[in-house]
Amino acid sequence: MTADHAISxxxxxxxxxxxxxxxRLPGIQPxxxxxxxxxxxAFVGQMARRDALILNQPDRVHALLPRAQxxxxxxxxxxxxxxxxxxxxxxADGLITRPDGVQVRPDPAQPLLTLGRLVQEDLCILEVPxxxxxxAGSHVLTGAMLCFPASWMLSQKIGRSLLRxxxxxxxxxxxxxxGVQRLFDAIRPEQPLWRMNFLTYDDAELHxxxxxxxxxxxxxxxxxxxxxxxxxxxxPVSRAVVFSIHTWQVRSxxxxxxxxxxxxxxxx
Length: 268
What we know:
The chain is about 30% helix and about 20% strand. By secondary structure, it is an alpha+beta fold. It is globular and about 50 Å long. The mean pLDDT is about 90.
């Protein structure tokens, strides 16, 4: 396991539990910049953890249904083109050198596994199925590179609708699901969306898979604050929605006593 000081950031970019726009579900807002892919001071530690998970547990962190292949291929091309413009990455001799100096050989036959070793974000692909009447009109999780799940398991969610994915999240009922689905339907390639959640843990580990029937352990000391910036992007060709997740985690003493008290009230 990576030491918590290496896998965690120094501070949170914002405190979502302090802002009414993000504290209330679903808290979705327009993304006004291109930050659905970004890197920060935890890049080295988080990428080392991702490398280890992809090497040792690929079936736990990666899934791709055949119907998602076109979307995964498009996402692969979009992100590689973006990294080619990033001075922190270099492309030479069939290899991509990351900002931490690690070299990755891109494999277009494994688009999500390749991307999982290049960027800090977890990446989920959601599509509207063509003919599955049980999921009609609802986006379905058809592919994912998920190294840092926050108490859910990819194997239980792949192929499921938005409502089914959020079982057993209590506030996520059919009414909220309909509202989120309308947002998904309205996403345009030129106007991505974002939200940010917040959780507390006593454990610095970012890989936190947990079966649906197993409740998340209630933290006693709330030593770590974990926030996920979740962005929704419409791919222009496949029309799939990409859900990118950038995970921040800081020690709780990086916020003020008042901010921490407000957080504890919110998570309870």
